[in-house]
Amino acid sequence: MEGVSDPGLIRDHNEDALGYDPALGYAVLADGMGGYNAGEVASGIAIEMMAHTVREGLATRAAAALDRRGVPHARTVLEEAVFQANSAIHGTAQAQPQCAGMGTTLVATLFFDNRVMVAHVGDSRCYRLRDDVLVQLTRDHSFLQEQIDSGLITPQEARLSHHKNLVTRAVGIDLSVEAELHGYAVQPGDLYLLCSDGLNDMLEDEEIAEVLSDLGGHPSLAVARLVECANAAGGRDNVSVLLIEVKRPFPARGTLWQKVSSLLGGGKSRI
After folding, report:
1. For residues 224 and 5, is the Cβ–Cβ distance under 8 A?
2. Residue 245 near residue 213 (C-beta atoms within 8 A)
3. Does residue 25 carry a pLDDT above 90?
4. What pLDDT does 154 receive?
C-alpha cells in the first residue's frame, strides 16, 4: 500500500486524511468539510476511529468468518467502524461550537480470503484496475450523481457543473449515517485506488487509468504521479490517493489476519 495527501494549489490547508495497515489488509481515506479547519478535524477523527474499530474487530475474529446470516465479519467490522466514526464526529461537533456542522466523506477497503469489502459515504471513490481496464467500484452519494441517474444531465455535463461539492451523505453530520458496502472478488495483479474528489475532478478516468497502467507496478511512483497530474490540471482542491497492489492470492487460513498477512505481499508498502 502507498498513499499520499497534498493540499493542492488553491487551498491553504489540507482537509483530507488517510490511513492504512497492510498487516490487516485495511485502508481508509477521508475528505473533511466544515468551518475554519473543522474539516481536517472531522477527517482526522474518522481515520482514527475507523482504524481503532477495525483493529478491535479483527483482534479475535477473522474478517472471513461468517455470522448467522452468512455475512462476512469484514462487512460487520466496516459498518461498526463507520458508526463509531459518525458518533465521534457528531459528538465533537455538538460539544465544540467551532466544529459545528463538520463532517467528512470516506471510502474504506478491507481485504480477506481473496475478496475485498468496500465501504463508502459521500463522493470519495474506489477504483479497480484489472487487465488495464479501470472500473469505478463506488457510486457517488452526490447531487450530481442523482441528476445523472435521473437523466437530467449527462456525465460530461456533470464535469462542468458548479455543484460538484454537494454530497447527499456525509459522516458526522447527523446522528446516524448509512454507509454503502459491497464485496468483490480479488485477482492477483489488481490495483485498487482510493481517492478524494480532488483527483477525479481534475483528471478524466482515462488519464487515471493511463497512470496506473504505466506505473502500477511501482505504487510510490504511481501515487506521486497522480497528485502531480491533478495539480498540473489546476489543483483546485486537496488531492489524496491511496494505492493497493495485489501481488498474490491470499486465502484465509486460521482466525487471525496476522496468520495470512504474509500472503498479501509481505512488504510494508504493498499487499
Report:
1. no
2. no
3. yes
4. 77
Residue 271 identity (one-letter amino acid)? I
Look-up of cell digits 447527499: 168
Read off the amino acid at residue 154. T
β-sheet with 26-33: strand ranges across: 16-21, 26-33, 103-112, 115-121, 180-185
The 3-class SS string of 76-104 reads HHHHHHHHHHHHHHHHHHHHCHHHCCCEE
Question: Taking the model in full, what pTM does it have?
Answer: 0.89
The pLDDT mean for the chain works out to 90
Q: Which residue has the cell 463507520?
A: 82
Residues 9-26 have a mean pLDDT of 95
Q: pLDDT per residue over 106-158, tens digit each?
A: 999 999 999 999 999 999 999 999 999 999 999 999 887 777 777 877 776 77
User: What pLDDT, on a 0 to 100 scale, did the predictor assign at position 149?
Assistant: 74
Q: Which of 126, 40, 54 is nearest to 84 (CA)?
A: 54
Q: Are 257 and 62 in contact (CB under 8 A)?
A: yes
Q: Where are the beta strands (DSSP E) in the chain?
A: 2-6, 16-21, 26-33, 103-112, 115-121, 125-130, 133-136, 180-185, 191-195, 239-245
Per-state percent for the chain, helix, strand, coil, to nearest 5:
35, 25, 40
Which H helix or E strand runs over 110?
Answer: strand 103-112
The residue type at 146: E
Taking the domains of the chain in order of start, what are their residue ranges?
2-258
CA 42, CA 148: separation in Å to the nearest integer? 29
Q: Which CATH number fits domain 2-258: 3.30.70.260, 3.40.50.700, 3.60.40.10, 3.50.30.30?
A: 3.60.40.10
| 167 and 142 Cβ atoms separated by less than 8 Å | yes
